[in-house]
Amino acid sequence: MAGKMKVSALVGQKSGKLEALAASHKESQEEKTAARAADPYQLQSLDRAVAVLELLGESEGPLGLADVCERMALHKSTAHRALMVLERCGLIERTPENRFRLGLKLYELGSRAVEQIDLRARVHPWFRRLSAQVGETIHLGVLQKTTVVYLDKVEPNNRRVWLASRIGASNPVYCTAMGKAMLAFLPADAAAEIIGKIRFVRFTHRTLCTPEALMRSLDRVRRRGYAIDDQEVEDGVRCIGAPILSESGHPMAAVSVSGPTSRITQQSVPGIAEHLMRCCREISASLGVRERKRVHVPSPFAQHYGL
């Protein structure tokens, strides 16, 4: 009799636990249903994957699985699944140290996005103001393989000397200010791939004609934030270029200030560059890009020209 009572008590305890688990599961399902009802377009796995991309984009370097779990408060298996899906799609890539960073597929998609945005209409107000500030010709360009394609051009008012550039034309990436400005801020793998495909041709005695010379120039561009074409395409013409950066810190396009060396003197370059970089930051902000903090690097005349 006592044995039957113990069995009955055990059965009752188990039944109570099962009922509690069922109630808890039902409550959890109701919460999830309520969340979906509040936001009918929420897709948890997709939201999580996007959050992982944003985390990697904001990180100063590649992150390991444990880093992602800790920063996003995710279970190891959940974070691992999200990372595997993103890696399979090429949106992130794994380093030799088994850590994760943004993949080049994102750059490809970003480039396509830029092509689909009417950048000319977006940037025109800033170009008019910049042209008035510096009194020179302003160009908008995008990277296309090993060349820069000119999408827009704004000439200053009351100028007798005009530049012969035209919308739709292109110039090599290695000897233009816009080209070097974009190359310098590309992911390292993407920049190396482009540089490897360049056929260097000398246009003037100042043209950079080797990968090594170009890489040294790109190092200077990254330090100061802008590039210079110091009569590298055409004698007597000097250009200053800066990138329009995306949220990831990679270039969507570039802007240049161009004019004759008689007006854009070596001494005037730093001041013009300040106006140009401010213009690019404001354009990025207008496209929804949050400004990144830059470490200020003093830029005396010798630094601008690598002397």
Keywords:
single chain, 307 residues, alpha+beta, Arc Repressor Mutant, subunit A, Beta-Lactamase, 2 domains, six-stranded antiparallel sheet, two-stranded antiparallel ribbon, 11 helices, 8 strands, 51% helix, disordered C terminus
CATH superfamily of the largest domain: GAF domain
Order of helices and strands: HHHHEEHHEEEHHHEEEHH
CATH fold naming of the largest domain: Beta-Lactamase
CATH architecture of the largest domain: 2-Layer Sandwich
How many structural domains are formed by the residues?
2
The percentage helix is 40-55%
State the shape. elongated
The average pLDDT score comes to 80
What's the end-to-end separation, in Å? 101 Å
- Alpha carbon gyration radius: 28 Å
Total number of helices: 11
- Unreliable parts: 32-37, 294-307
Q: How would you write the strand order of the largest sheet?
A: 5-4-3-8-7-6
**SSE class:** alpha+beta
Tell me the β content: 15-25%
CATH class of the largest domain: Alpha Beta
Main pleated sheet = 6 strands, antiparallel
- Find the count of extended strands (DSSP E, 2+ residues): 8
Describe the structure.
With 307 residues, the chain is α+β, with helices and mostly antiparallel strands. The protein is 51% helix and 16% strand. The chain has two domains: 30-102, Winged helix-like DNA-binding domain superfamily/Winged helix DNA-binding domain (Arc Repressor Mutant, subunit A); 109-304, GAF domain (Beta-Lactamase, 2-Layer Sandwich), CATH 3.30.450.40. It is built from eleven helices and eight strands. The strands form two sheets. Strands 5-4-3-8-7-6 form a six-stranded antiparallel beta sheet, sandwiched between helices. A two-stranded antiparallel ribbon has the order 1-2. Strand 1 (92-94) and strand 2 form a beta hairpin. Helix 2 packs across helix 4, helix 3 packs across helix 4 and helix 7 (177-184) packs across helix 9. The longest helix is centred in the N-terminal third of the chain and has 37 residues, at 2-38.
